[in-house]
């Protein structure tokens, strides 16, 4: 009798797992974070836009502004908190590489998504 009960339990668990797998496979596929990222355009008054995840409040925005303005070649950083973007005005003498900007963002504890440079501006030393 005991063997029969344990066999029934194993079969029941298998059927539940199979049903759950089928139900999950029928759900619509969600886009990945990379696919869901909105297209970023650099405003005419700026040189680059960074997409940064993890900024949730004005203190986060102030920290990101301060960190990026300490990077050599960044004249001004403007954080658009609701869009999770940072608009940069860069120095004419030196343009920071995407890698340097990435390191600054991640060292501040935020997730660097991408950098889009204005036409005519080139991201130096990114290897991309």
Short descriptors:
128 residues; 4 helices; single chain; 4 strands; four-stranded antiparallel beta sheet; alpha+beta; disordered C terminus
In terms of DSSP E residues, the strand content is 15-25%
Low-confidence runs: 123-128
Q: How would a crystallographer describe the biggest sheet?
A: 4 strands, antiparallel
Number of strands: 4
Question: How much helix is in the residues?
Answer: 25-40%
Distance between the termini: 66 Å
Query: Average pLDDT, to the nearest integer?
Result: 79
Category by helix and strand content: alpha+beta
Write the H/E string, N to C.
Answer: HHEHEEHE
Give the spatial strand order of the biggest sheet: 2-3-1-4
Q: Cα-atom Rg, whole angstroms?
A: 24 Å
Number of helices: 4
Shape: elongated
Give structural notes:
This protein starts with a helix and ends in an 11-residue tail after the last strand. By secondary structure, it is an alpha+beta fold. Strands 2-3-1-4 form a four-stranded antiparallel beta sheet, with helices on one face. The chain is built from four helices and four strands, in the order H-H-E-H-E-E-H-E. About 20% of the residues are buried.
């Amino acid at each position: 009798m005991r063997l029969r009960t344990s066999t029934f339990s194993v079969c029941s668990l298998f059927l539940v797992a199979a049903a759950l797998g089928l139900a999950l496979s029928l759900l619509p596929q969600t886009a990945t974070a990379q696919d869901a990222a909105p297209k970023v355009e650099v405003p005419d008054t700026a040189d680059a836009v960074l997409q940064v995840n993890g900024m949730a409040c004005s203190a986060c925005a102030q920290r990101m502004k301060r960190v990026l303005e300490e990077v050599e070649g960044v004249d001004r950083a403007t954080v658009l908190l609701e869009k999770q973007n940072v608009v940069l005005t860069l120095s004419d003498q030196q343009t920071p590489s995407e890698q340097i900007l990435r390191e600054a963002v991640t060292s501040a504890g935020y997730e660097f998504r991408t950098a889009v440079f204005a036409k005519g501006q080139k991201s130096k030393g990114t290897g991309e």
